[in-house]
């Protein structure tokens, strides 16, 4: 059984529609696909309808934009009730924060000699309710300012970069609690990638697991080298956390994250499903 539990569609910042993503999963030999769009459940219905035709199981998920001591942290939630009002309200606040920072980003880009309009950004967002920096990057590519998303992030849009603007995101501890209250299983995405080990220390992960009931971390992820994976796996074993493996696939949005390049152990997936069922979550 092949399982990839962290992917994105065009409903957030991926480049494949949910239907295209599910079909690609079948072509890649995946049995289970976790759809975890940023701060929205909107792609799940289409993905599950497409999955019926190709024999792939879609595990409902989300990637929630959170922050810890001012640093961005991404929190995956599996099996959440997509109608749980308190979680939906928080996701709406996060999405408003995404769009609310756009004028500041456009001002900074104009000052850098790369003017863009909100209309040009909207052309990249399409029908997605979750506007993000990748859409700004795509508009920069379309105008010829950079060659691809990666260059846009590496030079301008990275956290603290010359075209970056802060936005509202959920406090990480509250995010863990909301996902559990919605019947889901909270898992921190790529915890030690991109320098996040400074905030997500072993002591902090222990606090999140013991006091807030965090249940898992991504270990096998393209952002983690071999040594990081060994250390994270050992820490997860000590804390009793599930260890996931996932591609974080964004279609053409992340060229180094092909679908199924990292996968989750079937035994971990079985336990994940068991927990979702036990608390009445969505499968």
Task: Explain how this protein is built.
The protein has 283 residues and is an alpha/beta fold. It has 2 domains: 3-93 and 172-278, Metal-dependent hydrolases (TIM Barrel); 102-157, DNA polymerase, domain 1. It contains 11 helices and 8 strands. Strands 1, 2, 3, 4, 5, 6, 7 and 8 form an 8-stranded mixed beta sheet that branches. α1 packs parallel to α2 and α6 packs across α7 (149-157).
Index terms:
single chain, 283 residues, alpha/beta, TIM Barrel, DNA polymerase, domain 1, 8-stranded mixed sheet, 11 helices, 8 strands, 16% strand, globular
Question: Strand percentage, roughly?
Answer: 15-25%
**What overall form do the CA principal axes indicate?**
globular
- Averaged pLDDT, please? 95
Q: How much helix, percentage-wise, in residues?
A: 40-55%
Our count of domains comes out at: 2
Stretches where pLDDT is under 50 for at least 5 consecutive residues are: none
Q: CATH topology of the largest domain, which one? A: TIM Barrel
Largest sheet: 8 strands, mixed
CATH class of the largest domain: Alpha Beta
| Series of H and E elements | EHEHEEHHHHHEHEHEHEH
State the helix count: 11
CATH architecture of the largest domain: Alpha-Beta Barrel
Supply the helix-strand structural class: alpha/beta
Distance between the termini: 18 Å
CATH superfamily of the largest domain: Metal-dependent hydrolases
Number of strands: 8
What would you report as the Rg, rounded to the nearest angstrom? 18 Å
Q: Secondary-structure map with pairings?
A:
Blueprint: E1 3-7, H1 18-27, E2 32-35, H2 44-54, E3 57-68, E4 71-78, H3 85-100, H4 102-111, H5 118-125, H6 133-142, H7 149-157, E5 170-171, H8 172-181, E6 185-188, H9 202-211, E7 216-220, H10 226-239, E8 242-245, H11 266-278
Parallel strand pairs: 1-2, 2-3, 3-5, 6-7, 7-8
Antiparallel strand pairs: 3-4, 4-6
Helix pairs in contact: 1-2, 5-6, 6-7
């Amino acid at each position: 059984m092949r399982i990839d539990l962290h992917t994105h569609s065009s409903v957030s910042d991926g480049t494949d529609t949910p239907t295209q993503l599910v079909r690609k999963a079948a072509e890649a030999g995946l049995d289970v696909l976790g759809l975890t769009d940023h701060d929205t459940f909107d792609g799940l219905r289409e993905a599950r309808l497409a999955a019926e035709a190709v024999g792939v199981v879609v595990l409902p998920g989300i990637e929630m934009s959170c922050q810890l001591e001012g640093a961005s942290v991404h929190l995956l939630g599996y099996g959440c009730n997509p109608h749980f009002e308190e979680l939906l309200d928080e996701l709406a606040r996060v999405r408003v924060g995404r769009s609310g920072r756009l004028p500041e980003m456009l001002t900074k880009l104009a000052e850098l000699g790369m003017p863009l309009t909100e209309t040009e950004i909207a052309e990249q967002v399409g029908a997605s309710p979750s506007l993000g920096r990748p859409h700004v990057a795509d508009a920069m590519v379309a105008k010829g300012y950079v060659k691809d998303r990666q260059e846009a992030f590496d030079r301008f849009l990275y956290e603290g970069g010359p075209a970056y603007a802060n936005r509202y995101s959920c406090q990480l501890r509250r995010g863990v609690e909301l996902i559990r209250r919605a019947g889901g299983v909270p898992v921190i995405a790529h915890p030690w990638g991109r320098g996040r080990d400074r905030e997500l220390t072993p002591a902090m992960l222990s606090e999140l697991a013991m006091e807030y009931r965090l249940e898992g971390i991504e270990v096998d992820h393209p952002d983690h080298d071999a040594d990081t994976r060994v250390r994270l796996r050992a820490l997860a074993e000590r804390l009793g956390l599930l260890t996931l493996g996932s591609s974080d696939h964004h279609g053409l949005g992340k060229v180094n994250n092909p679908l199924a390049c990292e996968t989750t152990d079937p035994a971990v997936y079985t336990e994940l499903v068991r927990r979702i069922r036990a608390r009445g979550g969505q499968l």
